[in-house]
Write a structure and sequence with these properties.
mainly alpha, 2 domains, Four Helix Bundle (Hemerythrin (Met), subunit A)
Length: 137
């Protein structure tokens, strides 16, 4: 990941020298940088390694220009997406869990008698035995 580190160092330098003007430009370049960081990470099934890499780079970027709040917001949003995808893939691997992507106002006849669980609900709900709730069908 040496070429990615060079990109990070270059971006940190730009942030420190305030070469990037405006929140939109800062957010866009932060997202592009984090996309390259994620794509250069070796593929593993461990989201923890990816989260720690993004966190470390995010801390460098935020420390470079703490006044630019868009940078921190993009980093936190990317971390949220990584965690959400990890939870979704874990639920799929377990099998039978339904993750809702629709709003709560949807007609329940579309899903039958199975309750749909959001990613946030899955994270907080466990069976008394300590396992995640599974689909009853």
């Amino acid at each position: 990941m040496p070429d990615v580190q060079a990109l990070v160092n270059d971006f940190v330098l730009k942030l420190k020298r305030r070469k990037i003007e405006g929140s939109h430009a800062s957010a866009r370049q932060t997202a592009e940088l984090l996309r390259s960081v994620v794509s250069h990470q070796p593929y593993t099934n461990q989201a923890a390694a990816l989260i720690s890499a993004v966190k470390a780079i995010g801390q460098q970027l935020i420390a470079a220009n703490p006044v630019e709040l868009a940078v921190g917001n993009v980093v936190r949003r990317v971390l949220h997406i990584i965690r959400e995808e990890d939870l979704s893939s874990t639920a799929t691997a377990i099998g039978g869990l339904s993750l809702a992507v629709d709003s709560d106002d949807d007609d329940e006849t579309e899903r039958g008698d199975r309750p749909a669980l959001s990613a946030a609900a899955l994270a907080g709900q466990k069976h008394p035995s300590g396992t995640l709730f599974t689909n009853p069908s």
